[in-house]
């Protein structure tokens, strides 16, 4: 294959469609600070996602940091080691200690059965991740939170557009933080948001993301600059016009991979669980012992053929130096996550990935010794 194929490629609508939005920004001379594009995108996203309130951010990590500040979370927070580092980093940046709990082998999300044993008098919240857009066991997690008076902040970075039988998965918990990074299903170049249940909470979040400013002479909190610019918001408005096409293309690609890979011995496609609408944000497979190559050998074999899959999420967050010494980071505490991190490989999936490429990738996986 001539052009390299990466794990993802951002969806870019035709450039001329974007220039219309840019012209409006040039005319208005409003570049940031809750401008008209920002307000419109918040309204359109609430409607599209079916959530009560949404506060836009300049990226998903600042959204997570701010969500923790908004709920005044302190002490210890229970979270998963099987995620992108931003999940646990958002805790450390707030002076909070992450407590890692193992994942469920089917969903690859925080295992509710193991949460209670990790609760201490210092625990103030649970931060689960809807990994790959597969919903967590939200009911079981909420029951534990209610019993122990804990807050729940979902890292929903992967979960744009995912629905369960009651609607958007973003409605669960006290708050959900999403990412609109270039690599995500819905992107604003860089960007993110917090989904929240009511206008009062949104007001606090709005203050926090704008330095804590209420008006020209009033600052109520040590806030941060978490604002999304008008250019990013405009791109979001345009992306939203194309989202059905993006989601449909991803679904089609996932179906094709499924057809090719379902019969390959030693390869398990990570199943969907608990959603009525998926976003196919990632295409994760597990490379088992029966497969003729190790995961890393397959990863390298694909690379040698110009296909750059990614081992999301290897290494586990708990293995990085800033977390490794924590008691909950011990691999014996995290046997499922440790095992999955050694087997996982995310295959390329994005709307413009053509069928021939999917066939070739699947062919290499099915017959690795022929390539
Ligand atoms: N929580 C979770 C669970 C997350 O997964 C993330 C982000 C966050 C929180 C934080 O949200 P943000 O603050 O990022 O909004 C990528 C992304 O940078 C990161 O957003 C994402 N998770 C993570 C899972 O993946 P890398 O280091 O793997 O990205 P990178 O630059 O290697 O990109 C992967 C491939 O995508 C490249 O090989 C080529 C392609 N690509 C990438 C970019 C940036 C493009 O074609 N165009 C591009 O502009 O982290």
UniProtKB/TrEMBL annotation:
Annotated positions of the N6-(pyridoxal phosphate)lysine modification: 184
Pfam families the record matches: DegT_DnrJ_EryC1
An example molecular function term from Gene Ontology annotations: pyridoxal phosphate binding
Position of the signal peptide: none
Source superkingdom: Bacteria
InterPro entries: DegT/StrS_aminotransferase (IPR000653), PyrdxlP-dep_Trfase (IPR015424), PyrdxlP-dep_Trfase_major (IPR015421)
Transmembrane helix in keyword set: no
Active site location: 184 (proton acceptor)
Key words of the record: Pyridoxal phosphate
Chloroplast is among the record's keywords: no
Cited SUPFAM superfamilies: PLP-dependent transferases (SSF53383)
UniProt record similarity statement: Belongs to the DegT/DnrJ/EryC1 family.
Stored PANTHER family: PROTEIN RV3402C, TRANSAMINASE
UniProt name for this protein: Aminotransferase
Species for this entry: Halomonas huangheensis
